[in-house]
Amino acid sequence: MESTERLKVELFSFGFKYGAPTDVNVLWDVRFLPNPYWVERLRPDTGLVDEVAAYVLESDRGKGFLALLRPMIKFLVQQNKAAGKKSLRIAVGCTGGRHRSVALTEALVGSVEKLPIDLTVFHRDIERDTGTEE
Description:
Elements: E1 7-15, E2 26-29, H1 50-57, H2 60-82, E3 87-94, H3 100-112, E4 117-123
Parallel strand pairs: 1-3, 1-4, 2-3
Helix pairs in contact: 1-3, 2-3
């Protein structure tokens, strides 16, 4: 008999310079995406700001990665549910956890929020120091 209990999904961003989370099922490293940190006017903002998110997500790399990632997340949700799992933790990381990983995490919310899941979204390192990026 299939459980009617909803899968609990945590989707969150983080910064590698503060340590990668070890208690996740899936971790994506998005440091290959264009980095708003290197654009002076974008640096103080976060991936929650439209202009910063657009810089990351509307690039060719951002569009391509999202096109692949959206169906992958749906697939992972379906398969984890079918396997009887109770939870799925997905982490998205960039260097500092303020720009790229935040923008991508927020973009993914729209892909999963309509699925039959209990979704929690947070940005672990968004308020951390904005020190030097590599």
